[in-house]
Structure formats: structure tokens, C-alpha cells
Amino acid sequence: MHVSTGVIKIRAQQADRFNASNGFGPGKQIWGYSEVRPKAFIFWWLYRAHTQSDVSDYYAEKPLIIWLQGGPGASSSGYGNFEEIGPLDRMLKPREHSWVKDYNVLFVDSPVGSGFSYAEDHSLLARNSTMVVYDLIEFLKQFYHTISETTTHDWQRNVPLYIASESYGGRIAVEFAYALSKEIQANVMHCKLGGLFLGSAWLSPLDSIAAWPNYLSGLGYLDESGRERIERRVAAVRERMAQRRPGMALDGWHGLQQAIVQETGGINCYNVLKPTVKDIPPIEVESDEVLEYGETLWWYSDTGPPQVGALHSSLERLMRGPVSHMLGIANKPPWGSQRTAVFDALSDDFLQPSTKTVEALLNETAIELVLVSGQLDLITCLPGTFAWMNRLFQNRTDGNLRPREPLTVDGMDDTIEGYRTAYTERFTHYTILRAGHMVPADNPSAMAHILREHIGRF
């Protein structure tokens, strides 16, 4: 069934098999494009909650989670779906801890140009977070209108909404949530926004990179002279940002990345305990992993992507091949073809902080914020995260409600999976053990526990 409403065209089908009329994979799915500005399109893909595929209205009882990937330029429909939280992994095997089992999950390829989203001209790509958020607000208005018509269920008023994100997606998530809260307060929108899940959030980039030298030195990846060389590069980036020269700062950030790769022999910045290699690819060569996640950050592995046949040997081939054909969108621009342009367009925005927006959310809204950090993540390493959190909360009167406590998960033999600190009634930070930048992929049982703890709490 095809449904057309205004500028949105969607297909809603029961998707129990891999075929072009039913979506891709198990469960009920609805997907489509929203024209958020003339000639600028956001792709979205909704998986309705399904524990039992024959329970047709099970989804109506469950919250809606919007998933925003990082980058900027990474794809929610691709990486977030098949590598982290969707019903199938990249090898097309069922995922044990898929979020779709318990929640309606909406993968949004944002900003425009990420994943299957596209602009007819690169001049239409967002240049700052304000424009990215504008597009998301416009998308959400159209989505609620269309999904309610398609399912005859008022999702906006009746289904609780949460926003989950990763990396740079966390910066967009807090700005999006703040803008959406203003729309709700003005009675322009009527959704029930309950909270944010901020995974490895790139909320204070300068704090993160300032912590890299000592973090790497403490782990044994840098000697004293190497640490000093990296510190000088960090200082140069911070100086350029202080001078309000973000373009030059970003150039320095790229140089900082390459210096760390050279000093460490090819560290895996997404998870520092994963393998490194001695032969480092030239700067102009992108590995499959870099292409798939969409970032310019480095991920050099000695194993490469899983081999699941020539067609599925990379996420890009899967998305541009079977997925696009089965969703009926193979005639659109190829998945991921504009990701580099997305990053370039947002280059001046990339190193900007959003910690003041975090504070505004705490002061002006009732939204709960849950920040999740991986113990083994270099990109948003724990010392950098603690630096901005300590500044944010040092003078607050609502204080720390309870001391840091171990996190255990039912059925895991009382193994400590991490630690929880409640900074206020509505701000909780989790440190997750045995996890890097992609916590849902590295420690899915801990992430599932966090969702259960906080969804529906307020």
C-alpha cells in the first residue's frame, strides 16, 4: 500500500519476509521521505514494536524512540539499525537485544544528506545545528500527521516520545529536544517528550580532545614525549577555537587525529582495546568502517568487516543493494553518497559545544537526560566528559541525589556492568564497562537495562 500525504510518500506493509512489498526483515515497518525544505529530503524508517509478530496492535502500547546517528553524516537507517539496535545485524541474523522487541524505533537519517536522505543540490545541506534542528522539527510534524493517518492511531498525543543518539547525534539531540520543548510549550506540537538518551555524546568537543593526551598516556599508548607532542596539537586546536576560527581549528583537529594514529601505531579510537595495526592507511584512504559510520574519525582494524558473502561484505553494499531495492527506493541517490558533503557543510559547527543547552533543558523543561559513556571510548573519553559535567553541576542547588553505585543486570550473575551517578533528579550518568563508543553494540544487555530503568519514569 502506498500512501501520499502532502510532500511525504510512504509505504506501510506487514514485513514478515525479505521482499520488495513488505520491507526488509521481520515485523511491521513504515518508511518514507519527508521534504523538509524545497529539494531537501529526510529519509525515515519506523519499526513498530513486536515481541510477537501476530499481535497487530502491540506497538500502540509502547513508546516511540527516535534514533539519531553521529558523524555528522552517519546513517541511522544503516549503522544504527544493522550494527547496533535494529532487529537484524549486518549478517542478517536476528539481534538478541534489539530495541524493536520492546519499543517503536524510528531511524531518522539526519542531517539531510546522511544515509538515504539527500539534497538535490549540496548548497541545500545544513550549515549549522540550527538548520539541522529546523529540519527535524519539520520532519516530525509531517511524520506525526502521516503515521496517524496510516495507522488510525494518534501517535503525537498518545505515544510517549524519547530521543536516543550517539556521538555528534547527541549534540543534535539536545538542541532538537530544546526546540521541540518550545514547540510543545507554545501548543504548536502536542507530543509527550519524556527524555533523552545520549550515548557517547559529543557535547563538549574541546573538553574531550583536551583529555586525550593523559588518557592515552595512562593506558600506555603514549610515552612522555608522545604525550607532549599531542598536547601541543590540542593546544593549537583550542587556540583556534578561542580566536573564533573554526575552519582552522578543524584542520588542526584532523592533524591531531593523524598524529595520534602515528604515535600509537593505529589505535582503534572507538574501542581502545580492539586490535591496532602497524600499517596505517594513507590519510586519503577510507576503511570500510570509516565509510560505514560516516565519520572522519579513525577506525583501523586488522580484521576488517565481517565476511558474509560478496554482496554483504560491507554495510554500504547491503544498503545500496538489497535494502534499497526491497524498500523500493533504488531510484533515489545511493545510500551514503552525500555523507562527506554533510560533514564538510557542518565543519564550522563540529567543534562547538552544547553544554549550555543541556543546562537549559534542566532549568526550563521536565525532560530527563540520561548520558551513557563507554569505558573504552577515546572519542568522548570519560575524563573529558567528567570535566564538563563537573563544571555544569558544581554550583547547582539541586545537587547530587545519591552516590555513585554499581550497575548490575538481571540474569548476568551479579557481574558489574558499569556505574550510575544521579547528578540531579533528571540527569543520570552511566559509565559502562567493556564498551567503547558504540555502547549498544559493545554491551547491549547494559544498554537494555538502562532503557528499562528510565523509560516511563517521568
From TrEMBL:
GO biological process, one term: proteolysis
UniProt KW Transmembrane helix keyword: no
Pfam families hit by this protein: Peptidase_S10
Annotated keywords: Carboxypeptidase, Glycoprotein, Hydrolase, Protease, Signal
Enzyme Commission identifier(s): 3.4.16.-
One of the record's GO molecular function terms: serine-type carboxypeptidase activity
Top EC group: hydrolase
Phosphoprotein listed as a keyword: no
Family recorded in the similarity comment: Belongs to the peptidase S10 family.
Name this polypeptide is given: Carboxypeptidase
